Amino acid sequence: MRWWRVVGLLSGTSMDGIDVAATEMALDGDAIELRPLGDDTLDYPAGLREQLLAALPPGRIDAETACRLDTRVGQAFADAARLGVALAGGEADFVASLGQTLYHWVEGDRALGTLQIGQPAWIAEATGLPVVADLRARDVAAAGHGAPLAGVLDALWLGGSRFQGKSGTPEASGVQVAVNIGGIANIAVVGGPEPLAYDTGPGNALIDLAAQRRAGRAQDTGGALAASGTPDAELLAILLDEPYYALPAPKSTGKEHFNADHLDRALAELGRPIGDGDLLATLTELTARTVADACRAEGADRVVVSGGGVHNPVLLAALRRQLDVPVLVSDDLGMPADSKEALLAALLGFLTWHGLPGNTPGTTGATGPRVLGSITPGRTALRLPEPVTHPPRRLIVRSAATH
């Protein structure tokens, strides 16, 4: 059994920096064993985050700006990869990058395209390592949404755990819903009648936008602004009257939909001023409500939360208040909440490296399983292992102290 050292990278829809995770992974029969080695977040260089946010709809950019952003993000990811190699003890076998999503093209119930920037050649040049990147486009080409790809991790990780659900019968395993609250919130259903994952709507996207506008803060740290106000029932009703929430899965969305224009339309319909605290409290309640509605619709017996949203106690309390089932943070089950998505990038790269599909068609809507991404060689000739013929069925997360 060979252990591979992998560095996973991504920047989420909040665009607040690059998440880095170093890990060792090995195939052992029907299981992938994963041992985290370390994680960190590298902030974008001064001004780059603002340029990225300005490039999102309703903003417009030209080809020159797109090229410059792709290069600068690629160079930032190269710095993050070097950090990841250091976290891995100075040696790694390859890097896996989910990049920075700049645009996700969805019309109706179909994803027609997706664009992640952060040119992997910069990572390969900086580290000398092969880079697995562009991990969403193949799923979109196969009629999938290219998101959320976390369903493959959650199915492998939570699928092996059993607990008594609402049925009360010991032999029946309950339905678990894994929730990730980043800029956009998404869920993956494990133990239901079929694999299922989708974006529920805004996670921190509208909260961050309002915090920046009203208080000059990149985010509502610790939920302090929301805690100072009370949800406005009228504005909440306007925000909930959004057609996306009623669309059937699979579905995906992004900041090209839940953006400044979306919030401004809701505030215009409200037609009266609203205080800073009340606005933040309302947007926090919106995220909790839409996530909770999705969890209830999927028959959740247990909810496991990860992503930046776990650090907002007001949001987490609202989610727990609206659900009558246990709501855990993924750390409670051994999966680091802060680095879960970077570990997802590493896992997707590991699957591609071994010739294994990285999508779960039931979760993205793709017509079938696909090996995802493209590989940029490092300094030496590319040498891949023999393709694995039997897909793994479990993901076992080991502590950093054990193999």
From TrEMBL:
This protein's pathway: Amino-sugar metabolism; 1,6-anhydro-N-acetylmuramate degradation; Cell wall biogenesis; peptidoglycan recycling
What lineage, starting at the top, does this entry show?
Bacteria, Bacillati, Actinomycetota, Actinomycetes, Pseudonocardiales
Ribosomal protein found in the keyword field: no
According to its UniProt entry, this protein's organism is: Saccharopolyspora flava
Job description of the protein: Catalyzes the specific phosphorylation of 1,6-anhydro-N-acetylmuramic acid (anhMurNAc) with the simultaneous cleavage of the 1,6-anhydro ring, generating MurNAc-6-P. Is required for the utilization of anhMurNAc either imported from the medium or derived from its own cell wall murein, and thus plays a role in cell wall recycling.
Q: Which UniProt keywords apply?
A: ATP-binding, Carbohydrate metabolism, Kinase, Nucleotide-binding, Transferase
In alphabetical order, the GO MF annotations are:
ATP binding; kinase activity; phosphotransferase activity, alcohol group as acceptor
- Name the protein family: Belongs to the anhydro-N-acetylmuramic acid kinase family.
Catalysed reaction(s)?
Answer: 1,6-anhydro-N-acetyl-beta-muramate + ATP + H2O = N-acetyl-D-muramate 6-phosphate + ADP + H(+)
What's the EC number here? 2.7.1.170
Which GO terms fall under biological process for this protein? 1,6-anhydro-N-acetyl-beta-muramic acid catabolic process; amino sugar metabolic process; peptidoglycan turnover
What sort of enzyme, by top EC class, is this?
transferase
Ligand binding (ATP): 12-19
Name used for this protein in its record: Anhydro-N-acetylmuramic acid kinase
